[in-house]
Specification:
Layout: H1 5-25, H2 33-56, H3 62-79, H4 90-110, H5 118-138
Length: 139
């Protein structure tokens, strides 16, 4: 099943800051790409928690609510700077976080909590996001 056109457009637009940040890091366009990609990745990973919470709120069992908050907690404990965070590892933890969200997407899809078209939207954008984060970490 094909995602709604608006979902495709907004998802593509949402990937643009990741692509722009990777281009900055590679020197293709001017700007401070690492700061941008960490800040934006943090926001989007928390947003994905909210998306999963929305799926859970449609009448799912308690475990779905618990799983839905994991990406936001991952950001808090491993990405944002504080005494428990691993210094300099934000990009690695964002990569892990987005791959973790994809696993949660698979679970929510398997349990029929996400729309049938969900993975056809999420798999490609996750590949783009993780690729951009990988560039940011290794370039």
């Amino acid at each position: 099943m094909t995602p709604p056109r608006i979902a495709i457009l907004l998802t593509a637009a949402g990937a643009l800051p990741f692509i722009a940040a990777a281009a900055m890091i590679l020197g293709l366009i001017p700007g401070e790409g690492r700061g941008l990609i960490v800040a934006y990745g943090t926001v989007i990973l928390c947003f994905m928690s909210g998306v999963l919470w929305g799926f859970a709120a449609r009448g799912a069992p308690a475990w779905a609510y618990v799983l839905s908050v994991l990406p936001a907690l991952h950001v808090f404990f491993f990405v944002t700077p504080h005494p428990w965070a691993f210094e300099g590892q934000a990009l690695a933890h964002l990569i892990a976080g987005f791959l973790g969200v994809l696993i949660l997407d698979l679970v929510f899809q398997a349990k029929r909590l996400a729309p049938r078209w969900w993975l056809s939207l999420r798999i490609p954008v996750t590949a783009v996001v993780v690729g951009c984060l990988w560039v940011a970490r290794h370039a």
